[in-house]
Design brief:
Layout lengths: L1 H29 L3 E7 L9 E9 L2 E6 L9 E4 L3 E7 L5 H4 L4 E8 L4 E7 H12 L24
Antiparallel strand pairs: 1-2, 1-7, 2-3, 3-4, 5-6, 6-7
Protein name: DUF2550 family protein
Organism: Paractinoplanes toevensis
Keywords: Membrane, Transmembrane, Transmembrane helix
């Protein structure tokens, strides 16, 4: 009888934790401005060390929350003022096995914090890059106006 009680308690705790994780994800998604992404948390082995989660846009920050975590605090916070995308590439090697099809890996510089790699759906990259470059004029995180490049006039024969 004692074994059944222990098994029942373990079963109840497992489902309570599972419910808490899904409830946390639901709360994060309620406010809107969320995307599905992966962040590379370890570079010890090539192609490995990716953590799946939810990216939440809050003002000038992209807050990364791990998918299977009970913490309400983000694991990483990327500030738009210092974040610069240095390279875009397709997943290669073992990364192709852990990421959905049509995802893009972005290698970014995060100011003094160093390099960070994030991966997201190809359709999400455009929105992410727009968020990264856009901010109200004069606000922190706004991009200074870039010189416009005018195309050369074409001469038709």
């Amino acid at each position: 009888m004692r074994i059944l009680e222990v098994f029942g308690i373990c079963f109840a705790v497992f489902f309570a934790l599972l419910f808490a994780i899904f409830f946390r994800q639901r709360l994060l998604n309620l406010g809107g401005g969320t995307i599905r992404l992966q962040v590379r948390v370890s570079t010890m082995m090539p192609g490995r060390g990716w953590s799946t989660g939810i990216g939440q846009f809050v003002g000038d920050e992209l807050r990364f929350h791990r998918m299977f975590s009970l913490a309400f605090r983000p694991k990483r916070v990327l500030d738009r003022e210092v974040l610069v995308v240095e390279e875009q590439r397709r997943p290669d090697g073992p990364e192709r096995l852990t990421m959905p099809a049509q995802w893009v890996v972005l290698r970014c510089s995060n100011g003094e914090a160093g390099q960070i790699e994030i991966a997201m759906a190809e359709s999400t990259v455009t929105g992410f890059l727009s968020w990264l470059e856009a901010a109200p004029p004069g606000q922190p995180g706004s991009v200074s106006p870039r010189p416009t490049i005018r195309p050369r006039p074409t001469i038709e024969h």
